[in-house]
Amino acid sequence: MDKDLLKKTVTELSGLIKDKEVSPVEVTQNLLNYIDQSNKDTNSYISVTADSAMARAKEAEQEITSGNYKGVFHGVPIALKDNIYFENEVTTMASKIHKDFVSKDDATVTARLRDAGAVFTGKLNMHEYAWGIDNDNPHFGAVHNPWNPEKVPGGSSGGSGAAVASHSTYSSLGTDTAGSIRIPSSACGIVGLKPTHGRVSKYGIFPLAWTLDHVGPMSKSVADAAAMLTAIAGFDGRDPTCANVPVNDYLSGLNGNVKGLKIGVNEEYFFKDVDGPVEKLIRDRIADLEKQGAIVTTVSIPSLRNAEWVELATSLSEASAIHHSDMQTRPDDFGADIRFLFELGELFTAVDYLQAQQARRQLKLEFTAALQEVDVLIAPTLPFISPNIGDDKVNINGKQVDFIENCIRFTGPSNLTGLPAMTVPAGVVGNMPVGLQIIGRAFDEARVLNVGLAVEEMKPLGDHQPMLAP
């Protein structure tokens, strides 16, 4: 097994494949060998599709050898979250109810990655129906954080976070309704990007809450996230929420230059009740950006005081509507944690839901106004260090507080507004990674990625790496 090859980023690996220094067959077989050894420790994969992966790798090798190189993802093996459909393959949603579900179509993102030449190695574990944070799945088992296998990897895209961090996939996609890309990316020390709502098609992805759902990259580097977004973004008429907005080459636009960049900091919400060591790391990285020529100013967004209620009223109502029929006929087939949430969602009235949408509109207006004054907002992704698997409380400045509530405090507002938001590693506290969140203007992913690159180039993780890395 070639450990150095496993640790390559997509953009590093693609250069080797393009120049024929390594072959897709060699890369894929090496990765499959590693998955066979490592998955017992992380439990990041629900299914491994070794035979089809090797067949596709051989096709990719023949295409490249004959001069038909398709780009960054050609011949690169990746795995996706198991709520993203594959044509004629089982997609379980990590559930009992859908354990044998087979889609007739690829999701749009799956099809676009196929067209880009990607090799799919399997489907990744997740919180059941993407409705949870700890990824302790009653049907497929808990995912373990590669930095410390006793710790929660974050969710709901915990399998994607753990697989990327442990190098058992070169990149992945997650879905994000209240933070499910950014939370596990932060907890697992990788890059996670939730694009603007409508930037990437959700066709062929099982919904959690229609108006809040997003799909986006979870990657080893900012460059990999940029390459992934370039591959999957763009209009799709099969998704009624998809926006017809031109797609940039996000990778070629990266330079890490933040001179003159205006950074907004919201003190009263995004820096309230943050564990001291986490807050220090985020403020240190902001100061580092200032040293590179960025301009930091405070911004006020008063409606953030309502954000947690608005997020819950919206997500619980929409999710409960989606699962209402199964809750009526087979409630015992749901995990206990999400069954409780679906029952809770049934309690909201139409008045509650519509009032939440009015408050949500005001929040969007205030974010838009703030982002006219600054280029990006920067905040912690999570206000604490990941707890142990099974814990429902976390420590913030010596106080034990609710895990789930404090997980989505800083990530949920970007789902309500639909604005792009990315987490990048900011450093390490107690041998666990900490994420810094960058929120940008609608469809301004290029700037968000560029700020992320500036932070990444500080090498905030130093020599620290996950315990379960090869």
UniProtKB/TrEMBL annotation:
<dbReference type="Pfam" id="PF01425">
    <property type="entry name" value="Amidase"/>
</dbReference>
<feature type="domain" description="Amidase">
    <location>
        <begin position="26"/>
        <end position="449"/>
    </location>
</feature>
<protein>
    <submittedName>
        <fullName>Asp-tRNA(Asn)/Glu-tRNA(Gln) amidotransferase GatCAB subunit A</fullName>
    </submittedName>
</protein>
<dbReference type="InterPro" id="IPR000120">
    <property type="entry name" value="Amidase"/>
</dbReference>
<dbReference type="InterPro" id="IPR023631">
    <property type="entry name" value="Amidase_dom"/>
</dbReference>
<dbReference type="GO" id="GO:0003824">
    <property type="term" value="F:catalytic activity"/>
</dbReference>
<dbReference type="InterPro" id="IPR020556">
    <property type="entry name" value="Amidase_CS"/>
</dbReference>
<dbReference type="InterPro" id="IPR036928">
    <property type="entry name" value="AS_sf"/>
</dbReference>
